[in-house]
Amino acid sequence: MTQELISNLNVRTQQTLSTPQIIKQEIPVAEKAMTTIINGRKSIEDILNREDKRLLVVVGPCSIHDTKAAMDYAEKLKGLSNEVAESMMLVMRVYFEKPRTTVGWKGLINDPHMDESFDIEEGLRIARKLLLEINEMGLPAGTEALDPISPQYLGDLISWSAIGARTTESQTHREMASALSSPVGFKNGTDGGLAVAINALHSVSNPHSFLGINGDGQVAITHTSGNGYGHIVLRGGSNGPNYDSVSISLVEKELNQAKLPSNIIVDCSHANSNKDHNLQPLVFNDCISQVVDGNRSIIGMMLESNIGPGNQKLTEDLSQMQYGVSITDACVDWSTTEKTLLEANEKIRSVLTKR
Q1: Is the pLDDT of residue 354 over 90?
Q2: In the chain, fewer beta carbons within 10 Å around the N or the C end?
Q3: pLDDT tens digits along 26-75
């Protein structure tokens, strides 16, 4: 009788990855990128503490699948960021991991060549290089923390993190978030309920001890001090959108009852736009109008945006795919993004100084 009779019965193979420390030494953080990250995190913390009156806007592709297109987008966003800097802090959405309801492409890290070769080792290097290039432009980056191991490889390059609707209730992700070096937003549940997100906010602010890996890739007991910059992200739910003024008031009430700061980010996509990317600017503008009318709890928005509009299916012949168009959720195009943010900047510049 051997251990193999009862262990890893459904595991076909296992491949040892380079440790986080090895990959970080191969792809180190340059001084300019480090300055972007430090300043980015500090600005977001100041927005959450109400020491910075600007809105936080996390904007960019639903997911990254083409690094060239991602850098083209980043250059456009950096220019726009300079134009609206008086009223908005822009963070580029750089999502490498995608949760799937059943199966499908899981993101650049998991399958960077988009051919089911699952070259995760290369995916981690590609992701790290891209994050460095974006930060070296002076543009902070935000991502979804999905796999609990990935932050050891990439978390040092992230200024804002999100925990998705499917994982907000997960103890593993709450523990992980308590260790993240960046502020972290928890989305409400897929049903639209707030309880799981509110519970997560209490959890993430407290110390945790859990199993993880260290920089040398060793399994380690991780002890955290808690993340004091958790906040809620409204993305709607099965009952419909939750960005309107009535819904916002109800969220404010629940946060107050839970003795949590009234810091709300509205995700303009998902159920808030009824999964129609063309409605995202309407959601964004509604939130801007609420701020103009005196709302003080909305501290930012999320916008799924790309070079081209909509989305496309992943095909075997990658050469036939449209440049700068999402292969996951549909996005608004660049011209719409630019118009939406510039118009918002004009509306709120004078309002924010009195907020």
Answers
A1: no
A2: N
A3: 999 999 999 999 999 999 999 999 999 999 999 999 999 999 999 999 99
* pLDDT tens column, 230-256: 999 999 999 999 999 999 999 999 999
Q: List the domains of the chain with CATH numbers.
A: 16-352 (3.20.20.70)
Residue at 86: amino acid letter: E
CA distances from 170 to 146, 147, 166, 196, 292 (A): 11, 12, 8, 9, 36
CA distances from 231 to 212, 255, 297 (A): 24, 10, 11
Q: In angstroms, rounded to a whole number, what is the distance separating the alpha carbons of residues 266 and 270?
A: 11
Q: Which two tokens stand for residue 43?
A: 């600005």
Percent of the chain residues past pLDDT 70, beyond the cut: 99
| HSE-CB for 104 with a 13 A CA cutoff | 12
Closest C-alpha to 43, from 138, 116, 171? 138
Q: What tokens appear for 139 in the block?
A: 């543009």
In the chain, the amino acid numbered 202 is: H
Partnered with residue 161 across adjacent β-strands are 143, 184
Distances (CA, A) of 275 to 165, 283, 304, 306, 335: 15, 12, 11, 16, 20
The total of other beta-carbon atoms located within 10 Å of residue 294's CB is: 9
Per-residue pLDDT for 210 more than 70? Answer: yes
CB-neighbour burial class of residue 335 (10 A; exposed 0-12, middle 13-18, buried 19+)? exposed
pTM of the model: 0.96
Total residues found in the chain within this entry: 355
The two structure tokens encoding residue 135: 């930060």
Taking alpha carbons only, the member of 24, 310, 147, 254 closest to residue 161 is 147
